[in-house]
Design a protein that fits this description.
Elements (H helix, E strand, L loop, with lengths): L2 H18 L3 E3 L7 H14 L2 E5 L5 H15 L3 H4 L9 E7 L4 E11 L2 H11 L3 H29 L9 H5 L6 E7 L7 H4 L4 E2 L11 E6 L5 E6 L5 E5 L16 E4 L7 E5 L1 H6 L9 E4 L6 E8 L6 E2 L17 E2 H9 L15
Parallel strand pairs: 1-2
Antiparallel strand pairs: 2-11, 3-4, 4-5, 5-13, 6-10, 7-12, 8-11, 8-13, 9-10, 9-12, 14-15
Keywords: Iron, Metal-binding, Oxidoreductase
Protein name: Gibberellin 2-beta-dioxygenase 2-like
Family: Belongs to the iron/ascorbate-dependent oxidoreductase family.
């Protein structure tokens, strides 16, 4: 590809990103429009690293039970909630995020996404451990199935010969997937950050009030993240058009934050760092954050689909060529996870594994 054609692609991609808004994938089109859906998913992963999913097929009663368990836990007195902590990394945490000094206006439960671990941890979380573990395991099973469907559609859209090449990593019995419930207490003050009618915000603007950050800017290290929230806003994704480093005319748009309207009937899907590496940078690990400026509490449930610790993460041969050389050296998920735990929340951890 010539320099001129590369520049043309960048301009077209930027215009397309601005015009489309946040991508929405309607799974009710399956199975008739499978090829169309796979194409749309690939485009969303390339342009944003993010999309929402409607008509996902997860029964409402599974979602409602999970939400009810979360609401009941976070309504407990602090002393009772602390019985489920501290997070090492699994357990109950409040304000502290990770081990390196990051903080946010939230409390959370983090669990391994396997039935035995959930059953064991339920004893310190819930008054009725069996009800809690059944609700969580049923929800994780449904969301994992959704994640696998999305990963297989993505593989088809990339024309990868084995459509299960991504999904089998999180279906593996030794998958390192995890599950998190975040609770953002209501703010006692309001700011224009969440009351503005515009979905866009620029952190560099001198007139912008400092936001109350619930969960700071970061990308997810895993393969794919599936999030659902209640009807309270706060989630923002950072829109930075791909391969935009040479376009100096619009630098003021660098780091433009887009608010994602809350919709409890839909799920949010995030490309993770491992997925970016597996696709040789074709898919983009989206940077995102949560603001906690609402007068109402926000709660979200998040499934992080990850491979086994010994799984090798490297660009698929199908996606490597003379024109698209390897961007990342091979590494195990265990190696990458160690790097995650040794860095700050906002660090670009994948840069540590780039080819020279």
């Amino acid at each position: 590809m010539t320099v001129a054609s590369q520049y043309s692609c960048r301009v077209m991609r930027r215009k397309k990103t601005r015009a489309l808004g946040i991508p929405r994938i309607d799974l009710s089109l399956l199975p008739l429009d499978r090829s169309k859906l796979s194409k749309l998913i690939v485009e969303a992963c390339e342009e944003f690293g993010f999309f929402t999913v409607a008509n996902h097929g997860i029964p409402n009663h599974i979602i409602a039970r999970m939400e009810r368990e979360g609401v009941e836990f976070f309504a407990k007195p602090a002393s009772e909630k602390q019985r489920a902590g501290p997070p090492t990394p699994f357990g109950y945490g409040c304000k502290n995020i990770g081990f390196n000094g990051d903080k946010g206006e939230l409390e959370y439960i983090l669990m391994e996404a396997n039935p035995a671990s959930v059953r064991q941890r339920s004893n310190t979380i819930a008054d009725h451990p069996k009800h809690f573990s059944c609700s969580v395991n049923e929800y994780i099973g449904a969301v994992r199935k959704l994640a696998c469907e999305i990963l297989e559609l993505a593989a088809e859209g990339l024309w990868v010969p084995d459509k299960s090449v991504f999904s089998k990593l999180i279906q593996d019995v030794n998958s390192d997937s995890c599950f998190r419930i975040n609770h953002y207490p209501p703010s006692t003050t309001t700011t224009t950050t969440t009351t503005s009618t515009s979905p866009f915000s620029n952190p560099k603007s001198p007139n912008s009030p400092p936001p109350r950050v619930g969960f700071g800017e970061h990308s997810d290290p895993q393969i794919l993240t599936i999030l659902r929230s209640n009807d309270v806003p706060g989630l923002q994704i950072c829109c930075t058009p791909a391969n935009d480093d040479d376009d100096d005319d619009d630098d003021e748009d660098e780091g433009l934050w887009i608010s994602v309207p809350p919709d409890p009937s839909q799920f949010c899907v995030f490309v993770g760092d491992a997925f970016q590496a597996l696709t040789n940078g074709r898919f983009r690990s989206v940077r995102h954050r949560v603001l906690a400026n609402s007068a109402k509490p926000r709660m979200s449930t998040i499934f992080f689909g990850a491979p086994p610790l010994n799984a090798c993460i490297s660009p698929l041969p199908h996606l490597v060529s003379h024109h698209s050389p390897n961007l990342y050296r091979p590494f195990t998920w265990g190696e990458f996870k160690k790097a995650v735990y040794s860095t700050r929340l906002a660090d670009h951890r994948l840069d540590l594994f780039k080819c020279p």
